[in-house]
Design goal:
alpha+beta, BirA Bifunctional Protein, domain 2, seven-stranded mixed β-sheet, 5 helices, disordered N terminus
Length: about 210
């Protein structure tokens, strides 16, 4: 299916490969994606938040494996975001992961990936739907003050991604997510998780007590 062209929405829509369909959303993107999935909309719906200060995405999927295995989708999306930023950003700007779902750039928090699934009665049951939602900060909020005032937080425009917009990042994420989905299907979760761990910041791993 081609990207959905919403005639009543003047915003540019990403040019995405099948099976993606795109829709802009005002408000809570994850909640909107969950509602769409619960209504039974076809998988592949990519919702994009209208706030240009944040690339807020939510992708609705149709799981085909048990709930426990589906949680690997979180790692797929994190890898896809990291690769997407490497593709559209300046060189030597590597994204690392803060366990369990954080995204860091130059040691500072730049985003996260959220995961939601339909409830199941047992871990070996297949959920009816799954939604994964990358969230990447494009610009720091005015409350952040002068550059460097909040060193633990950053945004793409603070890191040399000034020409990158929400649409370009959404396009890059979608294509890289398809790549990691294919690898997961062909190779299983082991290699995917190995790539995820290779990007994991060891300082963010909580010690086992």
């Amino acid at each position: 299916m081609n990207a959905m062209r919403m005639a009543d929405n003047p915003r540019t829509l990403p040019d995405l490969p099948p099976p993606f369909r795109v829709r802009w959303v005002a408000g809570d993107v994850m909640a909107a994606a969950r509602q769409a999935a619960e209504r039974g909309e076809e998988p592949g719906l990519l919702l994009i938040g209208e706030d240009e200060a944040t690339c807020d995405l939510a992708l609705a999927l149709a799981p085909d494996r048990p709930e426990a295995a589906c949680r690997v989708v979180l790692h797929l999306a994190m890898l896809a975001v990291a690769d997407a930023l490497a593709a559209v950003g300046p060189p030597l700007k590597e994204v690392v992961f803060a366990s369990p779902d954080g995204l860091r750039l130059d040691g500072a928090k730049v985003g996260r990936v959220r995961l939601a699934m339909a409830e199941v009665a047992a871990p070996d049951e297949v959920p009816e739907w799954c939604v994964v939602g990358p969230e990447v900060r494009m610009m720091l909020p005015p409350a952040a003050g002068e550059p460097g005032a909040m060193p633990e937080v950053t945004a793409l425009h603070e890191e040399g991604f000034g020409d990158v917009g929400v649409v370009e990042l959404a396009q890059s994420f979608a294509r890289h997510f398809l790549y990691w989905m294919h690898r997961w299907t062909e190779e299983g979760s082991g290699p995917v998780l190995a790539h995820w761990r290779a990007r994991l910041d060891p300082l963010t791993i909580e010690p086992v007590l």
